[in-house]
Amino acid sequence: VVYVFTDCGFFFLPGLGFCYSIISGPANATVLAGSEARFNCTVSVGWVILIWLSNGNPVLTVINSQGAVETSDRFTSQNYTSSNSFTSELIIHNTQLSDSGKIECSTQQHSENSFAFLSVQVNGSLFIKNSTLTVKENKTIEIVCEALGWAPAPDITWMTNDSFIDKSRYVTQHSQGSNGLHNALSILTLTPTDTEILTCLADIEALPNPQNATVTVIFVNSAL
After folding, report:
1. Rounded Cα distance, 158 and 166, in Å
2. Which of 46, 82, 118, 134 is the most exposed place for a label (fewest CB within 10 A)?
3. Structural domains in the chain, sorted by start
């Protein structure tokens, strides 16, 4: 056994001592519930044990001499080794809203850690009750778009014939749903002068494209 004093501190190991560090830690991620989340942690040569934690709870351990120790099917890993570093990729399967929070990569010997944050978002439902509405000339109507079961609360916008409608023409109210989810109710007020297609859009960061619901407003000229 040899005793070694390095920049990493004073410790002993059978044989040679190693000084190693976390080269790069995990990066923040935003994903939709039910999908995968992936985080990388790269350490220099000489590492012995690496522990992944989710909100302070150990979920996966990687030991140099034997590989990953997986205790749950939801938390697995892939490993990548180069001549001067080792990368552990934590994969969280079937992400849930409760997985949101701090994801930490920790090396046990020197109490060194690096962390990132996971945001799991929920794509809820979006609908307008009527698919078509018939409106007479000089008639003002209200069209209601409802978003249920989202996390976080979605950003609601409206479009008509591929053009965004000014925000002054609609009002959106948000409310707390169950299980940490959010609801939104958006009411658009307008006086049609022609037949048009109206689209309500709901967006959150994790969605590649906003979810949408449409209604066709059929304008009827009273002279006819």
Report:
1. 8
2. 82
3. 22-121 (2.60.40.10), 125-220 (2.60.40.10)
